[in-house]
Queue: 3 jobs
Job 1
Amino acid sequence: MSADLTARLLAEVTARREDLVALTQALIRIPTLNPPGKLYREICDLLDRRLLKSGFHTELIRAEGAVGDSDRHPRWNIVARREGSGPGQCVHFNSHIDVVEVGHGWTVDPFGGEVKDGRVYGRGACDMKGGLAASIVAAEAFIAVCPDYAGAIEISGTADEESGGFGGVAYLAEKGYFSPDRVQHVIIPEPLNKDRICLGHRGVWWAEIETLGEIAHGSMPFLGDCAVRHMGAVVAEMEKSLFPALAQKRTDMPVVPDGAKQSTLNINSIHGGEPEQDMEYTGLPSPCVPDRCRMVIDRRFLIEEDIGEVEQEVRDVLERVRAGRAGFDYTIKGIHSVEPTMTERDAPVVGAVAGAVETVFGRAAEYVVSPGTYDQKHIDRIGRLKNCIAYGPGILDLAHKPDEYVGIGDMVESAQVMALALHGLLKA
């Protein structure tokens, strides 16, 4: 690319700074909370109006029958495509439109989109409505400077990434929207820092363990069998043998932060005994020995590990407890799993974005892998498209936190990287 064209692309993005901020604010002000999946159609309508004005052909697609989809909370997605002046490859920017619960500790309106100290604040500002806005502005700036590009540009806003992506990217992938004959390059503007390229993510296995007991009167617990105590023995054995073993497993994947370079297990929830009552109930609980206790575990594993071995490690814990504890019985079932994925560093989309990062920042891009999964898993597993990365503005550590924000300068610079990458991939 000539120095003149590079300068024009960078200047075009910079000139759209205020528009980028306003679009980010507008997206934040639609509280697309998931669960349950609120206002997906409203945010898709906003994106539809915007992208139609920019010459995109748009489709609004409901993921009917997908996990989470209902008439009360339909899973809406938008896919927009703009063809160039001739045949060529397609670059697709995919962003999720849902955000997690607000939580406590905010000092600003979580859906106000407040601008302060060079930042836009709000739930989803960083994860990842700032990235969505940056990809739109990048595409529009590129089209303005290079109207005769070859190939196609796609932009999608998809549902439910925060709860697995089954009503969003997974559904679209099953319908062929991410097939390699339609799309050749995918950039997901997740907040991995503006000078990093995320090549993939660790694997995950979620499972539910249930310990079994016998109900009895709480004043005579010796006549029953407490399932909660049995679960306590499971946790104790995990602390003794499983957690230390996982800490010794290390990966060559460039996972960030450093603590995620090892295998990890999170105890997501434990519940035993009678169900919790509604807030309106003011009475006491009934005196019963709990005959069931359930625990959900979240096991993150490395590309060097086999998922069968991951599952067996947990089963071995349960069997050790069974061997040493009278009356112990359990069930275990897997409820969700995703294999690790990592795009090769010599993939075309990696090279284009890496070159753009070096142009904008004057230094080489850092290559990382995400500790948690994101929608690349569906593009890889269902779409069979390997040429996919995450790149976008925002600081990963701010995701899901109170007073979440995205830096305005970071969005502008990331949009510049995306615009330059479009030129590199579409040979404008």
Job 2
Amino acid sequence: MYLVEDKGGAIALMLAALSFLGTWPAVMTLLERRGRLPQHTYLDYSLTNLLAAVLIALTIGQIGDSKPNMPNFFTQLAQDNWPSVLFAMAGGIVLSLGNLATQYAWAYVGLSVTEVISSSMTVVIGTTFNYFLDDRINRAEILFPGVGCFLIAVCLGSAVHSSNAADNEKKLSDSSNKNQNTNGTNGDKELSNVSNRAGVPQDLEDGVSDVSYANFNDEKAKAGTAEFLIQLENKRSIKVIGSNTCLGLSIVFFAGVCFSLFSPAFNLATNDQWHTLKEGVPHLVVYTAFFYFSVSCFVVGIGLNIWFLYKPVLGLPSSSFTAYLKDWKGRHWALLAGLLCGFGNGFQFMGGQAAGYAAADAVQALPLVSTFWGVVLFGEYRRSSRRTYVLLAGMLLMFIVAVAVLMASSGHRKT
């Protein structure tokens, strides 16, 4: 079994995790914006997310001979370590609930703001727990100023969303007035009914195909315009124009609470700070804990999304397991997202076991990556106001400072 024990290796793993964990939400968002049902996407994602944990356990977790205090993966499966296993599985459950919630929140408040708020809450709450669980191996005088930067980012993230939402409302209002001036009352009617078009025949990858809406689909609108927002609404699976902003933010905060708990639970699973294991039973190695963590994440994700196929939420159309099996549009992207998230979480835990889980929470700066994809792929914040751009710049600056500070607080776990 291979273990990362030096600080340099741990930081390299954290940076790799930051890249992977910041990219997979963009892939999932891409599919939702193309109209693929989030239930279908999450079922595909869950398969490869578990596959990543199995691959890590069967390769890195099996390298070399098993040792009494550090057994390899197969040896540890047969040991009496269920208290630690339950902590690992509890972490997987709350992570699965958080990931599932963010999949819906992305549609309501955007990829960037969702990741900012949920990740910042994870650091503020989860890092504090991990600091004390890790017997304070991270330097508090450096660590907690970094946590403060994430807390500031929460406030800035909320302000960015509020400002951008106001910008979008103004764009739609201006477009409505323009259409009303040129087409009588048809313009207002067209815009006010945009959120009620779920019944219009759609192509799940190409959006609305009905010729009566040709004025919005003859050519692709420029990102950031009112026409772009309307085209996007026609395509996406979750209709959000006219929805309650508080609903989206509530989902985000629920996800943030879930994310705050998964890393401390994993910490307890691998280090047994509460002394729940019997005397002589070795602690769970990170690869075994990650396997159980991913199994519970898989079970919750599969179970809830099969339920949502038949009992959908947030106005989504119902589906069936047969329809899911036949839905191949975008499946390769959903499978890729699962692999990215699985390996990203694995690398985060490997780095945290070496340098402290509080420092490893630096990967929660993944909004740096997600915002990049949000701007490049989805046109978020295009043609927004100067106030929105200033707030966005401040938010990103806080994340850059926080990443540097948290990584600087890295310690070294005694083995």
Job 3
Amino acid sequence: MYRTALNQNETRSLDTRQKALAVNLDPRCYGTFAEIGAGQEVVRWFFRVGGGAGTIAKSMSAYDMQVSDAIYGRAKRYVCRERLQAMLDQEHSLNLDRLSDVRGQTTSFFAFADTVSARNFRGTNECHGWMGIKFQAHPRDEDSQIIIHVRMLDNDAALQQEALGIVGVNLVHGAFALNHEPDQLVASLLDGLSTSRIEIDMIEFSGIAFRNVDNRLMSLRLVELGLSGAAMFSSDGEVLQPSEFFYKKPILIERGSFRPVCNVNMDMLHCANEKFSQLPENEGKEVAQIMELTMSNLKADGTIDLRDFLARADVMAACGMTVLISDYFEYYRLAAYLSRYTREHIALTMGAHSLCQVFDEKYYTELEGGVLESFGKLFKNELKIYCYPCEDRDTGELMTSDDLKISPDLRQLYGYLQGRGVINSLDNFDPECLQIFSRDVLQKIKDGDSTWETMVPPKVAEVIKANCFFGYQREEAEACYAVR
């Protein structure tokens, strides 16, 4: 394939026109473009650079929803993953059925599809879309697939369409030229664009070419590269698209390092969910409970340790938790992000020490309005904070949200927020969890002190021991047990 004629640096230096032309000039690439919603922005590139007859088997746009339903079957929404997958499956299958006997030995077939809602005439709609490619990396190969979800940030429909065309070309080119280097493929998706124009908040690789790809790492890569401010995956490792996952759900977030997940983390979430779910506006609704890792936490040592990240992801998965990776160190930025996706209530749960940091003015020096501006943004949609108490290890004194030690200048503001029910103390906690600190648990694991197993959920202990996470040494631990 043409990637064999291009070294890595040459591939990354190509502009959009050169990428489209490179695909057109590859005699093996042949397939269909099916685009709904914003015109045929991607295939237009392949037509206008020349040589399209060697690449384009068919180009179509089923713009009317009833026509689209008739071709691909009904979907819950016009722009959704379900519709995209139906398009990819059907168009790729048609290519294989119609053309395999004629040119299957020498052709890598593909189907590119997108379903997009660009800016409408009144500018009142959510501007986003699903885009994907189903393809053969080599002739007669099993299928592979890449799916992404994009948010268009330009204020002009024509600019949004232009950006979509560029992303689409990058995706098609990357599928054939960089399928052996998925990290670089992800990085190439915004070639010729900037993060001020397009956000990619979800990517999923599947199929034979990506059999060794961990989509959780690809989600991390999106945030690390700045292609998105956040990314999500479920406890089974499935990548999630935020607007679909959070749709019509109240949201409860716990931020932490989760090295590892301890009993206190689970108790904090359980207690907050119990209180949050009892609010009249949340009765009978499914609360989305999320554990959040921030990039600042993952990069605490300067760089991201991928094994450490996967260890944390695995122990959260053992607890059945959905994971959010975000680049929103400031809570008000996290709140703004979540508010995009739901009109339901949002809550944060945190320990008393963390709540003290929320009221530390040093974190808001970049805002003209300082801490007042940050709180205006944080609490504008009736966000609630549930504060888990902390116990002093020396005195046994309990610190709750009622006796928080904050700056005298902010005490009246703090009292006002408490009075409004924005800051709430958790009194339904398990006292046995108060003396558990993740840093102590981590040290006990490294030291071979088996008492750490009583401080984490049983399933977490199983995962740590089975995979030797967080410095656990199986042989040393077994020898220690034998002596005891």
